[in-house]
Write a structure and sequence with these properties.
The chain has 115 residues and is of the alpha+beta class. Helices cover 27% and strands 25% of the residues. The longest helix has 18 residues. The termini are far apart. Bound molecules: adenosine monophosphate. Adenosine monophosphate binds next to loops.
């Protein structure tokens, strides 16, 4: 999906602008991490970049290298903050056909028993 398809009214854009609340886990200049509102496991946190990227494909194609490195380091820092480093799953649903519902790139960190 091209960058031009980014919709600034998507839920995560509104969370980034502070228009909607979130249960924050971690934040730095590159990313914001917060608890998923419908957790599928004991730990289920979303990490989103602070930029207008629709999906994983869009982010990896268009984000500057500094942003890409900063984002993935923020994912690791979030896992550390959650204490899940011994074992967790990373998922990035990509495109409607890949199960993506919110079209602001995000990574799911999932750990522990399914709820
Ligand atoms: P997906 O786009 O399929 O990767 O998943 C989007 C995820 O966002 C789902 O797991 C939702 O439960 C979650 N979600 C939707 N709205 C919110 C919200 N306001 N705060 C936190 N998580 C949300």
């Amino acid at each position: 999906m091209p960058a031009s398809a980014y919709d600034r009214s998507n839920i995560f854009a509104r969370i980034l602008r502070g228009e909607l609340p979130c249960r924050k886990v971690y934040e730095d200049p590159f990313a914001l991490a917060f608890h998923d509102i419908h957790p599928k496991a004991a730990v289920h946190v979303l990490v989103i970049p602070k930029g207008e990227y629709v999906s994983f494909v869009d982010f990896t194609a268009d984000a500057p290298a500094e942003m890409q490195a900063g984002f993935w380091r923020a994912v690791a820092a979030t896992a550390r903050a959650l204490g899940v480093e011994p074992g967790f799953r990373l998922a990035a649903n990509t495109g409607a056909a890949g199960g993506q519902v919110v079209f602001h790139f995000h990574v799911h960190i999932v750990s522990g028993p399914r709820t």
